[in-house]
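Internal tracking record. Fields below are filled automatically when a chain is submitted to the structure queue. Please do not edit lines marked as system-generated. If the sequence contains nonstandard residues, flag them in the REMARKS field before resubmitting.
Queue: standard
Priority: normal
Entity type: single polypeptide chain
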Amino acid sequence: MLSLNFEKTPSFMHFFATAVVIIASSIFIRIIYNLYFHPLARFPGPKLWAISRIPFVRSMQAGDLVHSIHHIHERYGSIVRVAPNEVSFIDPRACKDIYGQRSGHKQFPKNPVWVPPPSERAPSILNANNDDHYRIRRAWAHGFTDKALKDQEPLVKSHIDTLIRRLHEQIDQSKGYTDLDLVKWYNFTTFDIVGDLAFGESFGCLEKTEYHSWVALIVFHFKAAVISASFRFYPWLFKLLMMSVPKATLQKQRDHFSNAAEKVQRRLKLQKDRPDFLSHLSHRKQSLSEAEIESTAAIIIIAGSNSLATTLASTTNHLTKYPKTLERLTNEIRSSFKDESDMNLESLVKLPYLSAVIEEGLRITCPVPLGMARVVPEGGDTVCGEWLPAGVVATSAYSTRCTWWTRFWSRLDKSENVCGVGQGTIHCTPFTCTYFYLRGVGIFNQSLASDFEAGAVAKGGEMVFGGLFEIVSMLRSNEYTIKKHADKE
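SYSTEM-GENERATED OUTPUT FOLLOWS
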């Protein structure tokens, strides 16, 4: 009878031992190459991160990548290697080299790991190719012109007024003194505003003083997107790795897009003339399919709500930490307007110190914590005078100075030292209205300063963002002591 005894089969043991030696040798050779012979070996950074992509991916999945890279910059300098083929810059020149247009240089395309080409859904303004991006951006841009933004002002201001009214009610119920989680209230406000402007109806968060169920879907969308991106670093294992993601998480991501599609269809069927984003698109549907409108609307609901609320929360935190800044901002607004009713978003644009506060808030708290990675084009190119080979990933999304410094905006030439929000030819159009809506909060800050006294709660007023997932899911409460001024009681 034939029997197979592998222990007594020299050929099998020889094959197994040879395979182990080959694999171990390949890993060893790759480690030596990455550390000493790779074109990026000259850049400083942690050795483990230079050897393998695994530390980057683990930090990414934990939601700590933004902090990890920040600490690497603190230790190693302004140009650091954060993966075998990735470099991070905090030199302000890098923004223009990576995201801008330079004569005689090719454009740096988006990293397909972070922004994969559309597969199941129609292309959005985020993941479309250059030709489709231009077409989509041009169609949506009509909703972000100066005239369109001015027409939208009453909608924006109505929600800010509701925020102020609800804060008054919260304080009155507590006899003039209470601790409030302003992060939560900012999210209520921005979610209601973007719902009104993008879909023609508010989500009612401010009135109900609770999160809409869609907020939870956005959290899961972020988690699923980050996990999927981390797996795309290993394309040969991608399908297998995706099987480990809970089906419920992926389903909630699909539900997010389904909700956006449903809201878009409801708004398009209304056919009413109101100053929102889709009113401009309804007249130009021939340039975009309804599926393309739905895809970009799903992106706008995220960019216009959570990202903006994160910036507002950080800015408010710094205003409470730097009373002189808050006092100067308050004095500028009070001296510029006789009455609160005189304030509007157009007149707020003319206030230089308010603009400085907004710019500093955006600088010190990147609304997109993981940045927008780009890939060096074919033939290689230079960034900050450093030559990088084709295929290398380059990112610049971190501030060089992490302390609040509004004087920066009066001392330095912004065009040479600042990476603007959504800079470059393939940036997202809605970023152009970021400053518009942030100035709307100038109205709120005026009321905060004139009607209330705000200060960080002693037990934990320091704004600590524990990672990407904690930013988007608001897992940490950031409370502030709010009370009315004596003359307002």
